[in-house]
Design brief:
The complex is a heterodimer of chains A (about 120) and B (about 110). Chain A is mainly β. Chain A is built from no helices and 11 strands. Chain B is about 0% helix and about 50% strand. Chain B contains no helices and 11 strands. In chain B, strand 4 and strand 5 form a beta hairpin. Classes of the chains: A mainly beta (about 120), B mainly beta (about 110).
Chain lengths: ~120, ~110
């Protein structure tokens, strides 16, 4: 059974930084691209970032480009998101999501982790 | 980026009703359109991928159709457990989601 477990969320001041982690199990992590998707309180889903299986190719939404960095450790089966220069607009539940094969179809999701940016 | 627009934003229907949700893309996305269901307080769940392929154990009352820029999600006979918000998402290029359609039971 695929399991994705996010950690590292919490309350951070505007301008601050946070690093999210996602521990993956139940599948061969290195075989799948991964993404982060967020959902602001009471709002819809927003794709944030994606990373290829092994060559480190990364993709970002314009809203986070230059501030967020996605990475992965295929030995530890972990996905990461380094978030810098945070603002109130980044307040959301952040989900890590597994791709279905090589397509950005999100067939498994973590339970989500809340990031709150506030002074 | 490709913009995805869903209609309606919300609907209310009775048990057993046929429900249709539309998703339009700002440019052709061929068949690369996916649908997710999210119940309140829960994680999104993939229902349909590549326009019409049902994921896993998704009930057969859910179906999808379309191509190019216009797509539909149909629930053939609405059940109480189908009360949720439904999102379309294109996987043709950098992923984008529709704004969601909230389905309520009358």
């Amino acid at each position: 059974e695929v399991q994705l477990l996010e950690s590292g969320g919490g309350l951070v001041q505007p301008g601050g930084s946070l690093r999210l982690s996602c521990a993956a199990s139940g599948f061969t992590f290195s075989n799948y691209p991964m993404s982060w998707v967020r959902q602001a309180p009471g709002k819809g889903l927003e794709w944030v970032s994606g990373i290829s299986r092994s060559d480190g190719t990364t993709f970002y939404a314009d809203s986070v480009k230059g501030r967020f960095t996605i990475s992965r450790d295929n030995f530890k089966n972990n996905l990461y998101m380094q978030m810098n220069s945070l603002s109130a607009g980044d307040t959301a539940v952040y989900y890590c999501a597994k791709w279905k094969g090589d397509q950005s179809i999100f067939d498994s999701w973590g339970q989500g982790i809340l990031v709150t940016v506030s002074s | 980026d490709i913009q995805m627009t869903q209609s309606p934003s919300s609907l209310s229907a009775s048990i057993g009703d046929r429900v249709t949700i539309t998703c339009r893309a700002s440019q052709s996305i061929r068949i690369y359109l996916n649908w997710y269901q999210q119940k309140p307080g829960k994680v999104p769940n993939l229902l349909i991928y590549n326009t019409s392929s049902l994921q896993g154990e998704v009930p057969s009352r859910f179906s999808g159709s379309g191509s190019g820029t216009e797509f539909t999600l149909t629930i053939s006979s609405l059940q109480p457990e189908d009360s949720a918000t439904y999102y379309c998402q294109q996987s043709y290029s950098t992923p984008t989601f529709g704004q969601g359609t909230r389905v309520e039971i009358k």
